[in-house]
Specification:
CATH class of the domain at 2-97 and 213-323 in chain A: Alpha Beta
CATH topology of chain B: MetI-like fold
Largest interface: A-B, 36 and 25 residues
CATH superfamily of chain B: MetI-like
Helix content of chain B: over 70%
Oligomer: heterodimer
Strand content of chain B: under 5%
Shape of chain A: globular
Structural class of chain A: alpha/beta
Strand order of the largest sheet of chain A: 6-7-8-3-9-10-12-11
Number of domains of chain B: 1
Largest sheet of chain B: none
Chain lengths: 331, 294
Amino acid sequence: MSEKSMVADRENILEVKDLQIHFFTDRGVIRAVEGVDFSVRKQEVWGLVGESASGKSVIGQALMGVVAKPAGHIVSGEIFFKGEDILKKSPKEVEKIRGNEIAFIPQDPTTALNPLLRIGFQIGEAFKYHRGLKTASIPAEIVKVMKVVNIPSPEQRVNDYPHQLSGGLKQRVIIATALSCQPELLIADEPTSALDVTIQMQIIKLIREIQGRFQMTMILITHNLGLVAKMCHRVAVLYCGRIVEEAPVRDLFREPRHPYTRGLLSSLPKGEKGDVELYTIPGQLPNPLYHPPGCTFSPRCPYAFEKCQEIPAMEWSSEDHRVRCWRWKEI
Amino acid sequence: MRPGQGTQRKERILKLKKTFRRIPKVAAAIILLLLICALFSPWIAPHDPIEQNLANALKPPFWENGGTPNHILGTDNLGRDILSRIVYGARVSIIVGFAGVLISGIFGTFLGVLAGYFGGKIDAVIMRVTDMMLSLPYILIAIAIIGAIGPSLTNIIIVLGITQWVGYTRIIRFEAMSLSKSEFIEMAIISGNRWWRILLVHILPNVLNTAVVLATLDVGKMIIFEAAMSFLGLGVKPPTPTWGGMLADGRVYLTFAWWIATFPGIAIAITVLGGNLLGDWLRDELDPRHQLKA
């Protein structure tokens, strides 16, 4: 608890204002991210949870400046990293930040490594470009960073190809690549969803340990609420490209304000014995091409009333807790 | 645990040996035979390939009635030794086959990677040009170009280069497209690679397998294309012996002198087979995932 309140006083390392990302497809415009605001404080672990297709990965890509072209466009918004808007920077300046000061751990380690290149080479690329190291000194650095992520016998492993490694080891290689330049901000996009449960624990432990050791700020993008509870200081819930609620982890789990967050939390198994049917939120995600007017959750919301045809404003329910719902006081 | 320098070298030699052992023997033998024929034709061929002897015309192979051991595979309508012409013809076939494939393959792969990776306008322009090339019969383009610059070996290769790259571009573009959306390319961008390095180091090696397979299949196509051009009188000028030219010449005599067209046909078929087998092996060899099997 004390650690978490400490974090509250820190300054912001990242501020995102009114971010809108649209995908222009043949069938119409997909509004993947519709006006997202948030800020992340130095050295905190900030969680971003949401269902598949809620736009969470797209936000991660936008922060890295790799939104899928040619369909994807950042329509509006500002992303301030250490006080400077990275969307206004030139490609060369972005190159200096991306991978260097902001690092990225992708979802699936099996597709994130080039199958034809040795892993040492792939870890080394970042050293070469971002830290400008001489070729001769790179191998030693690679081994060093591989040791940090606990890859056994790194001297021999550097010459392995990705297919010779297990999923967990591949994810360690990815983490090593992300760490190679000692970034200040680490964005982890579902770092464990492609791994099996025992390996997930190891990787989570590793990421946590590294986050603490290098005092990194971290954005954890996930749909796993258990992971959020374990790792994050604050968490934002995303639904259809909008943040519907943001709060310190403890508050969110104790007093969820938004009906969607409540739905999510009550769909978690609670450890009852026997056959207990899990709660499910009625309905399904709306078609991404035709979001319902007003509050996007209203068609599935048990508390919906006429006013939900208008988009609710974000309101602060307490000092650090905000929610986007017309009726949060009542429910 | 760390292996010393000595063992590392031994391992490398062992690996080389293994690689060598995996080369398909039949394919290697065919290609080697072809190369030897092309390089040392004056010493291998029993006769001068363009020397005519009308008294000796249309002699069947030696095992047929009327054949002589002097002309093992018989003679053509002008009394030229078929075996010698096939041996000399390997030169043209090899040059046309490999040079044509090399030029069109490199050019086509390069354009395909560009179109697939960048997409958008670059892709649109390149793809419209390939559509244009595909919609025109290549023989027509070839006739137009050869008509303008005259028939010769170099010009045939130029024509092949200009007309045959389209297939590579189409297929490689598709592969490059799906690759450029993959996460490891995203990671490579994040690691600070510039676009040209992404193309060269990350995308090109991944499409090379496909390009190599296409190329080996194309070697045969090139040889046959040269044959067609020679048949139309737009290829290598007679009397230089070419397999395609021999095939064309022998067509008229097929009913009573089958050997004139058959033996160069067999030579083409065997060469194409050798190329394909070697291509299969090369494709596997270029993929590190495959080496586990060794």
